Amino acid sequence: MKRLIEDASRYLMNTYSRYPLLLVKGRGTRVYDYDGKEYLDFVGGIAVNVLGHCHPRVVVAIQKQAQRLIHVSNLYHIEPQIRLARLIVENSFADRVFFCNSGAEANEAAIKLARRYGKDHFGQERYWIITAYNSFHGRTMATITATGQEKVRKGFEPLLPGFKYVPFDDIDALKDALDEKTCAVMLEPIQGEGGVRLPSQEYFKEVRSLCDETGTLLILDEVQTGMGRTGRLFAYEHYGIEPDIMTLAKGLGGGVPIGAMLAREDVAASFTPGTHASTFGGNPLVCQAALATIETLLEDDRYILRECERLGEYLINRLYKLQEEFSGIIVDIRGKGLMVGLELTRECQPIVRAAMERGLLINCTAGTTLRFTPPLTITEKDIDRALDILADIFWRLS
Ligand SMILES: *Cc1c(COP(=O)(O)O)cnc(C)c1O
After folding, report:
1. Contact 127/183 with Cβ under 8 angstroms?
2. Ligand 1 atom having least distance to the Cα of 105
3. Dihedral angle sign, alpha carbons of residues 104, 109, 112, 117
4. What is the DSSP string of 53-88?
5. Domain with 373 in it
6. How many domains does the chain have?
7. Are residues 107 and 205 in the same domain?
8. Catalytic sites, residue numbers
9. Last residue of a domain, one of 296, 318, 336
10. How far apart are CA 45 and CA 53, in angstroms?
11. How far apart are CA 54 and CA 31, in angstroms?
């Protein structure tokens, strides 16, 4: 393991500060390192492994498709892609889907579609997009511009023109920023990388009304919140609104790289042949994995999603109990479903490392927020175990 990790620092671009851990196997909510040590996984590939590791339905779907056909060009019709698009459309606000390979690419597609729509319906000057401070939309040039965080953009200027930023959950700021040149507002239903930040319940209703009054498109980035993470298939369902465009990736393929950009019919109409494309987008292999993932989430009357909602409440209630005990360490508890943040009075990186030593993988976001994004198939017992480990670490700190 040590030798491989040395090779990693020699041969790989130095873009991640990785933990000295090499994972080689996974089953359900557990992963195993090179030496066979077991870890309870509350990272879940950062909200990717919605069905846990190597879910049999996903594994079999990939195996079968790999034997049949792995890739053909989008010059031709692709059966699993058609079936996947239909399943997504039948279970969302959308009428049409474009497939790509990641969250950033899905957001790129959304930005391009919004600009085309703006120009088609309102003229050449209508291309501005408003996003939120503290947001995260990806690492390509357009999506770092869309991302309202200085740290992801620094050194990559000049950025893409036509972006404005407003504080999240502040409808007045959005009203002030929006004008006749704005083609779209792009927001996360819950800010993920920004530290699991939930808006007030009215916010998205007000955003929706403002967009309707002005003919502005509402783009929801559900790359992290989508695919059941918050206890609904899509997080917009919590707010009683629908977007005009939505992006998905992370959990969509149960672990394989796939992204999607969805839109209503009249909006999708601005993409015509030749306006956008992706070589790998929606290839047979990844679409089968995504089909297996969504079918599993929806089966037994959405059993996994209902469990996600119940277990999210269980986790949050247990975290409140932990806060009573460690009020000097825990500042705030935020979340919906199994997307939960625990804000601490201190940097959470040392706690992440201590948890790893004790066999628990957990993520740290926005510096001081521990983020829980376990598989949606987690159990109460797993949650108890994770919180016992954290309680032990907090006890030593206090
Ligand atoms: C992770 C994430 C992205 C970027 O996804 P990639 O697949 O890494 O490009 C975009 N938006 C949100 C909300 C995310 O959480």
Report:
1. yes
2. 9
3. negative
4. BT-HHHHHHHHHHHHH-S---TTS--HHHHHHHHHH
5. 2-54+303-397
6. 2
7. yes
8. 136, 221, 250
9. 296
10. 9
11. 10
CB 221 less than 6 A from any atom of ligand 1: yes
* Residue to mutate, 191, 193, 371, ligand 1, most ligand atoms under 8 Å from C-beta: 193
Query: Is the CB of residue 106 below 6 angstroms from any atom belonging to ligand 1?
Result: no
**CA-based nearest residue to 78, from 91, 69, 87:** 69
Last residue of a domain, one of 277, 296, 315: 296
Q: 101: Cβ below 6 Å to ligand 1?
A: no
Residue 205's CATH number: 3.40.640.10
Q: Which two tokens stand for residue 238?
A: 């919590």
Same domain, 290 and 388: no
Pair (164, 278) in one structural domain: yes
Look at residue 314 in the predicted model and tell me its pLDDT: 98
Whether ligand 1 lies within 6 angstroms of the CB of 192 is answered as yes
pLDDT given for residue 1 in this prediction: 85
Q: What is the CATH number of the domain that holds 22?
A: 3.90.1150.10
Given strand 360-361, what is the order of strands in its sheet?
23-27, 30-33, 38-41, 360-361
The confidence score (pLDDT) of residue 67 equals 98
What CA–CA distance (Å, rounded) separates 315 from 304?
16
Give the model's pLDDT for residue 256. Answer: 98
255, 366: one domain: no
- Mean pLDDT, the chain cut into blocks of 10 residues (398 residues total): 93 95 97 97 98 98 98 98 98 98 98 98 98 98 98 97 98 98 98 97 97 98 98 98 98 98 98 98 98 98 98 98 97 98 97 98 96 98 98 95
Ligand 1 centroid to 373 CA: how many Å?
Answer: 14
Same domain, 16 and 149: no
Give the ligand 1 atom nearest the CA of 101.
Answer: 7
Say whether the peptide bond before residue 158 is cis (omega within 30 degrees of 0): yes
Do both 153 and 217 map to the same domain?
yes
Give the pair of three-digit tokens for residue 124: 């050449």
Please tell me whether residues 221 and 323 are part of one structural domain. Answer: no
Strands (E) across the chain are located at: 23-27, 30-33, 38-41, 96-100, 128-132, 163-166, 182-187, 217-221, 245-248, 259-263, 330-336, 339-344, 360-361, 363-365, 369-372
CA of 106 to the centre of ligand 1 (A): 9
For the Cβ of 307 lying below 6 angstroms from any atom of ligand 1, the answer is no
The confidence score (pLDDT) of residue 192 equals 97
Q: Against a cut of 0.90, is the pTM above it? A: yes
Q: Do residues 375 and 347 both lie within one domain?
A: yes
